[in-house]
Amino acid sequence: MPRIEGIKDEEAGFLAGRIFKAAAKMRGAVPEPLRLMARSSGVMWADVGFELAIGRAKSLDPKIKNLASLKVASMVGCLF
Predict the structure, then answer these.
(1) Cα–Cα distance, 4 to 24 (Å, whole number)
(2) How far is CA 73 from its chain centroid?
(3) How many C-beta atoms surround the C-beta of residue 67 within 10 A?
(4) Which residues, other chains included, contact 43 with Cβ-Cβ below 8 Å and sequence gap of 6+?
(5) What is the distance between the alpha carbons of residues 73 and 68, in angstroms, rounded to a whole number?
(6) Which DSSP state fits 57?
(7) What sign does the dihedral 39-43-3-70 (CA atoms) show?
(8) Which of 5, 12, 29, 50 could form a disulfide with 17 if both were Cys (CB 3.0 to 4.6 A apart)?
(9) Neighbour tally for 49: CB within 10 Å
């Protein structure tokens, strides 16, 4: 059980709810880190902007972007 509880769907405001729906559509479920970031709107918006920028970047092949993302996650010990 996490030390900090994430925002539930019924607690989310209009914009956070829309972001949750988009994330669930993309990944099949709302990632727990996004629910935690929704506690601070500034952090959530920074992450959403970052994810959009990565998604729109066209200079690398998507396979290479995914491999780089996995490598960085393993280097920093990220479980997600």
Answers:
(1) 21
(2) 13
(3) 12
(4) 37
(5) 9
(6) -
(7) positive
(8) 12
(9) 10
Q: Which two tokens stand for residue 80?
A: 């997600």
Contact 10, 40 (CB under 8 A): no
Angular region, 11: left φ>0, alpha ψ -120 to 50, beta rest: alpha
Closest by alpha carbon to 9, among 43, 56, 24, 1?
A: 24
Q: List Cβ neighbours of 68 (8 Å cut-off, separation of 6 or more).
A: 60
Q: What is the pTM of this model?
A: 0.67
**Residues whose CB is less than 8 angstroms from the CB of residue 6 and which lie 6 or more positions away in sequence, other chains included:** 32, 34, 35, 36, 38, 39
Phi-psi region of 13 (alpha: psi -120 to 50; beta: other; left: phi over 0): beta
> pLDDT per residue over 8-47, tens digit each?
888 888 888 898 998 889 888 888 888 988 888 888 889 8
